[in-house]
Amino acid sequence: CPSLMLREVASMYFTMVAAFLVILVVALQGSVPRGTDFPYKVPLDPQGLLELSWNVSYPEQAVHFQLLIRELRFGLLFGMSDRGEFENADLAVLWSDGHNSYFGDAWSDAKGQLHMDSQQDYQLLGARRAPEGLYLLFRRAFSTCDPKDYLIEDGTVHLIYGILEKPVRSLQAINISALHGGLQRVQLLKPNISIPQLPSDMKTMEITAPDVVIPSQETTYWCYMAELPEGFPKHHIIMYEPVVTAGNEGLVHHMEVFQCAAEFDSFPHYNGPCDSKMKPDRLNYCRHVLAAWAMGAQAFYYPEEAGLAFGGPGSSRYLRLEIHYHNPLVFKGRRDSSGIRLYYTATLRPYDAGIMELGLVYTPVMAIPPGEDSFILTGYCTDKCTQLALPTAGIRIFASQLHTHLAGRKVVTVLSRDGREQQVVNADTHYSPHFQEISMLKEVVAVFPGDELITTCTYNTEDRSRATVGGFGILEEMCVNYVHYYPQTQLELCKSAVDPGYLHRYFSLVNRFNDEEICMCPQVSVPQQFYSIPWNTFNRDVLKSLYSFAPISMHCNKSSAVRFPGEWEKQPLPSITERLRERVPRCPGSPEPHPAAPIPLDLGQLRR
Amino acid sequence: CPSLMLREVASMYFTMVAAFLVILVVALQGSVPRGTDFPYKVPLDPQGLLELSWNVSYPEQAVHFQLLIRELRFGLLFGMSDRGEFENADLAVLWSDGHNSYFGDAWSDAKGQLHMDSQQDYQLLGARRAPEGLYLLFRRAFSTCDPKDYLIEDGTVHLIYGILEKPVRSLQAINISALHGGLQRVQLLKPNISIPQLPSDMKTMEITAPDVVIPSQETTYWCYMAELPEGFPKHHIIMYEPVVTAGNEGLVHHMEVFQCAAEFDSFPHYNGPCDSKMKPDRLNYCRHVLAAWAMGAQAFYYPEEAGLAFGGPGSSRYLRLEIHYHNPLVFKGRRDSSGIRLYYTATLRPYDAGIMELGLVYTPVMAIPPGEDSFILTGYCTDKCTQLALPTAGIRIFASQLHTHLAGRKVVTVLSRDGREQQVVNADTHYSPHFQEISMLKEVVAVFPGDELITTCTYNTEDRSRATVGGFGILEEMCVNYVHYYPQTQLELCKSAVDPGYLHRYFSLVNRFNDEEICMCPQVSVPQQFYSIPWNTFNRDVLKSLYSFAPISMHCNKSSAVRFPGEWEKQPLPSITERLRERVPRCPGSPEPHPAAPIPLDLGQLRR
């Protein structure tokens, strides 16, 4: 069997599905984990030609990747970048010049030009042919100390991929803009949580959309109403997992199950797009999250002591399933019956789990000027509110779902005690509004009466020409962290907004400081006033100063409408006297000034 | 002759001035420069027991130090720190435990505790006994890449020294707070300028204070009036140098020669302290700097094409010499006849040199809130002014004297062209108001019509409880760069201040934003309005925003009272679209995590 080049492999494009086994001999740079050692899996492209599996080793502070390439042509790029762009990306590249194949750790500059890294941090561990395709195995430390490398952190990671359709002379010759490629968002650093014991009386319930024809458009939010049996008593949801129709793994982007409001006796049945004119308005009252899953996420487990109550008196029998289909290749006629499988028990656990909203009130008084690359808004859950509403023994936060609308770029919640920051509750510095899963926390966070929870959201409005105000609309903004905790308390909302009186002073100040006559009259709505501000540096700076100075209006609420008793207007801003230190990776030494050579892949031992 | 320990050396304290020669054999880590290779010299302590000589190698990017210790006890510390403090300092330490002696590169933490550096960057080159004392020779690179080390930059360097009076067990055992020590400010990185050719008809004139008895107090500014001969024609000063009475090198801190205003026919003779009630008021009209020297500075040379005009019609015959005596040990009865020696020629050079004031107008509208650790004020010389006032061929700036009052911490002037920063004219990031010399620039800076000169001063008001306004008083502030240039133009002042109308809007804004009723009435003076502001974060932030946004009032003046024709009020702030990159030192690798061992000094070869 003679030496077989990647080019020839490509010529066998349509026969490659047939079973033949190729063993690629490559320089091994570490132990090769077995295929079963990759518990997490996600399709990279909508067709499912590239499939990524991985595991996370916290002792080694490294991720092991297994990339399945179903139809290899002349190579591929795989990597990570800040927000999924191909510029300034950190890439593992497999490429063929038509004769020989190479693997290397590379980076792309601001113009998309590829360069070999001086330090090779995507360590190739092996390559293996299987009937389904070529498996590439490689390892990457979270932090490499190579300034050109991506730092793998908690939260969202934007994975990018590109397929080489032609041979290339060298890495530098790859034209990144002409690549067929895309991005996939995942939480790479899955928490290392032991799975709680499940009771023997556990039952399952599938909330799935029956036989949906996925619309042939890029984005669809599908709504389906489900119903619990009449007289269904109180149970505890103790786990849930996705049910994805085989073959649609690349299309089902995320799914959520909402419980409807108890004040309505019935909800209409509906099965159709969420934005359809035919959708009954009453479905808007189904907003209480019971379960949420996003691509790449696994099963969600409640802690052993707690479960999420559903059923029983005082709760609605109606559930709304929402599925986001992402169909960029506009496949037609694909049928889908995906959804979420709930695992529940009648043997109630010691504690009901609860969900609390932290962050900003949905109000236009919190606004972001246009043209900002990273504008920060902060929402507070004050000591006064936790003092009043939390039990002496405190609560335990075990999961968190971060939420903003389209301009959101980062979300961080920090726990502060006596003005000193204690720990990060949840942080996503590569947050995307298109990837909102409920993340189990690595560490359960205990919150006691008198603690403060400070949620900071960073927004990008560079593409907008007028101010973005807070609100429910998709082009308005939110800054929310839905924290999942136990034992459940009456506190459902612990959020803030700037005092409206101070905002009014800001508007009249802007009025005085600008020579143009702009009507900032009080009879004009807050959004209209924001829209009419001429956004010079002074007006921007002063708005920032206002938000970090003015007293706040607190929503310390039992439900969205019912406040705890007390004075919640014109509250002082929590002050921080001691910040958490940023963790700076310790680096053994700075990299060599010249780039390393790629690793040639010996493809000479191909066997059918 | 047996081995002689430092302890025994100490016991011979009073006999050490007698001639004996000690040769210390130490590990040589480089070539040892000869004693004559140290052109710069400064006494460290007022008694002159420690004398530092040094040279600067720009090719090696290193300074070679020669430290003369006249009376060695149990060792000494020598080093550098941000502003002369003993905490967070970078130190070379020679110490004895009573038996053995050691040399090491160390650092002190925020509590003053000493630690060995992991990287030894004060490289000991040799040690030599001479009749006058012990010479230590060592080398230090400007930038070491050790994060605990001081970065040697252009501008002021605060040298510190401490004398060990007792043996110490180890470096860590040194109690830095109990040391007898002090600080000395110098410009370490002297520019590497070739000395211009001097004409054969050069004459000298000494402006010296005759036989002053230095007052026995820490600080004295001495004023002495001198007079040019009647009918003295126009000459060019082409060089000047200090004349310091032998023995007073540690006391004469800095000296300036001012020319008096031409509008007065005569000035009274005076020889006494500048702050005396007996000092005639008219001496305040002698403010035009002819020459300025500070400790550690050498001779000042004008460029070959230019000289500073003095004498002749239209200029005053009267000169004021001001000497700052720094006498912290309160010596009594010391006599001094120091001053400045001017070198001048009747053969006028092609160009008259001129002095131009850049920065801020002396006005209270530019103010610094109290309690700020680094508040920035910026003064502009706009394109409109240089367009009008500079010749088409431009001017050449060859020297600069930075000036603030007591709160000044940094001063930087940058040249900008078409909104893009071109080069730093002069920068002192460790600026001290107590060390103001005229520095020759490393590179002559060409300024053309339409260029902008932006001067930024950073102030510290942490020790103040009320606002610091701009003005002439020592507790008011200035932000000035006196640039020396040729050919002389009519432009004497190119400075700015915020538009007073915008400042007034700020005051009324503060009024509206604070619930307390404070009178910010227009009939109250600007300083009084600043003094009555309640300094919360909002009022501070908005003042910063105001200064970086509001239009400016330009002083584009022929003299302090006469403006160039044109509209100079409500001018737009120059905008910068491209900043100069900060030079980040390239580091070969990060240091070892564990500290290095000190170098033992072999003192076994002592000979009388």
From TrEMBL, chains A, B:
Catalysed reactions listed for this entry: dopamine + 2 L-ascorbate + O2 = (R)-noradrenaline + 2 monodehydro-L-ascorbate radical + H2O
Signal peptide positions on this chain: none
Residue ranges constituting the DOMON domain according to the UniProt record: 48-164
Protein's name according to its UniProt entry: Dopamine beta-hydroxylase
Pathway assignment: Catecholamine biosynthesis; (R)-noradrenaline biosynthesis; (R)-noradrenaline from dopamine: step 1/1
Pro residues: compositionally biased ranges: 588-598
Organism: Catharus fuscescens (Veery)
GO aspect biological process, one term: norepinephrine biosynthetic process
Similarity section: Belongs to the copper type II ascorbate-dependent monooxygenase family.
Main location: cytoplasm
Keywords, alphabetical: Catecholamine biosynthesis, Copper, Cytoplasmic vesicle, Disulfide bond, Glycoprotein, Membrane, Metal-binding, Monooxygenase, Oxidoreductase, Signal-anchor, Transmembrane, Transmembrane helix, Vitamin C
Function field: Catalyzes the hydroxylation of dopamine to noradrenaline (also known as norepinephrine), and is thus vital for regulation of these neurotransmitters.
Cofactor: Cu(2+)
EC number: 1.14.17.1
Top EC group: oxidoreductase
PANTHER family hit by this protein: DOPAMINE BETA HYDROXYLASE RELATED, DOPAMINE BETA-HYDROXYLASE
Keyword NAD: no
Gene Ontology terms: cellular component: chromaffin granule lumen; chromaffin granule membrane; extracellular space
Gene Ontology MF, one: L-ascorbic acid binding
SUBUNIT field: Homotetramer; composed of two disulfide-linked dimers.
Region ranges (Disordered): 584-608
Highest taxon of source: Eukaryota
Localization: Cytoplasmic vesicle, Secretory vesicle, Chromaffin granule lumen; Cytoplasmic vesicle, Secretory vesicle, Chromaffin granule membrane
Membrane-related topology note: Single-pass type II membrane protein
Keyword Membrane appears in the UniProt entry: yes
